Amino acid sequence: METDSLAAILRAYGYTPESARLAPMQEGYINQSYLLCAPGFPDRLLQQISLAVFPDIDPLMENLQRVLPLLQAPDYHPIQLIPASSGESFIRDNTNAPWRLLSFVENSRSYGHTDNPEIAFECGRIVGRFHQLLEGVDVNSFPPVLVDFHNLEVRLEQLRLAEESAARERMQKASPWISQVGELARYFDYFPWESLPLRLCHNDTKLSNFLFDEASDKGRCLVDLDTIMPGYLLYDLGDILRMLIQPFAEDHPNYKELYLRPEYFEVFCQGLASSGLYMTPAEKGVVAESAFLMPLLHGIRGLTDYLEGDRHYRVVHPEQNLVRASNLITTARLVHQDMDNLKQLARSVLD
C-alpha cells in the first residue's frame, strides 16, 4: 500500500511512522497482517480486514469487542483490541479498507501441521477452554458475520453454480472430485442437527489459529476471531481435527499419500475431556462426524474457488485450490471409511 496511507494509519494509533517497523506475517489466506514494533510500545498486530470476505465489518467488530473480555483465564491468554487515538475500534485508510490493532502474544508460535501428539492434546484442551469461557452467553444476541458459512447445502449449491460458468479445462480437472463430493455429502441428508445446541463458535479453528508457548508447547489461546458467531460445537472440533487426523499440510502435492492417524483423534479427545467443557450427549455423539464434515466443507469451498478462478483464497500457483480440495476431500473419505472406529474412540474418552 502507499507509504502516505500507511503513515496515516500509524499516526491514528499514536505511532511516529519514522520509528515504527512493520514485518509482514505470512499465515492466513484472508487478512493482511503485520507485526508492528516501535520504541516505547509493546509489539502489536496490525491487520487490514478483507472487505472482499467481510463486506460488512460492523457485526464482526461488535462480536469481537463483546467476546474478547470473556476469553481470559489463568490457562487462556487474553487478546486485546487496541483502540485508535480517537477511541474508534478500527480505522479506514484512503481506499476505505478497515484496519485494526491487536495485542501480540509474546513468546508464542503456531504450526501449519504437526507430528507431535502433545500438540493434538493441547488443541483439544484449548478449544474446550474457549467454549467453556463462553458458556452462558446469549448466543442469539450475536449477529452472524458470514451467513451460512458452514451450511453444507448452501456450499453444495455454490459449487453447482460454479460448475455452470467454469472454464472447460478447470471443470475437467475438478470433475472427479465433484463426483466424490456428491457421494460423501449424502451422509448428512438425515444428520440430527436439531439435537445439537447452538453455541458461540470460533468457526475457523485451523491449526495455525492456535498459539502455543515457545518453550513448552502448552496451548495458550485461539486467534483470528473474525468469524465468531453462532454455530455448532462440531464446527470447531472438526475444523482442527481435519488437520490433525492426517499427517500432511493442506496443500500437500500428492493426495494419494494421505492416511489417517486415529491416535491423534483419540489424543485430541483426551485434551477436550481435560478442559472441563460440558458437552451434551448429542454433541459427544457427533465428534467423529465433525472430522468428516469439516474437511468435506472446506474441500467444497476449495473446488468452488478453483472453478471460479481463485477469487477467494490467495494462491501461489494455478492449481493450488484444486490441490487443497483433493487433500480435503480425500481426508473426508478416509474419515468416512473409518467412522465406526473413530466413534468408538470418542465414546471411550468422552463418555
Topology:
Blueprint: H1 3-12, E1 21-25, E2 32-37, E3 44-48, H2 57-67, E4 81-82, E5 91-92, E6 98-103, E7 108-109, H3 117-133, H4 152-165, H5 168-185, E8 199-201, E9 210-213, E10 219-222, E11 229-231, H6 233-244, H7 262-274, H8 281-285, H9 287-307, H10 320-337, H11 339-350
Antiparallel strand pairs: 1-2, 2-3, 3-6, 4-6, 5-6, 7-9, 8-11, 9-10
Helix pairs in contact: 3-6, 3-7, 4-5, 4-9, 5-9, 5-10, 6-9, 7-11, 9-10, 9-11
Radius of gyration (CA) equals 20 Å
| Net shape | globular
**Helix coverage percent:** 40-55%
According to CATH, what is the topology of the largest domain?
Aminoglycoside 3'-phosphotransferase, Chain: A, domain 2
Q: By CATH's scheme, which homologous superfamily of the largest domain applies?
A: Aminoglycoside phosphotransferase (APH), C-terminal lobe
Count of helical regions: 11
What share of the residues does DSSP label as strand, in percent? Answer: 5-15%
CATH class of the largest domain: Alpha Beta
What's the domain count? 2
Instruction: Please give the CATH architecture of the largest domain.
Output: Alpha-Beta Complex
Structural class: alpha+beta
Low-confidence runs of at least 5 consecutive residues: none
Main pleated-sheet profile: 6 strands, antiparallel
State mean pLDDT (0 to 100 scale). Answer: 95
| Elements, N to C (H/E) | HEEEHEEEEHHHEEEEHHHHHH
Name some characteristics of this structure.
three-stranded antiparallel sheet, globular, 12% strand, Phosphotransferase enzyme family protein, Phosphorylase Kinase, domain 1, alpha+beta, single chain, Aminoglycoside 3'-phosphotransferase, Chain: A, domain 2, 351 residues, 11 strands, 2 domains, Kinase-like_dom_sf, transferase activity
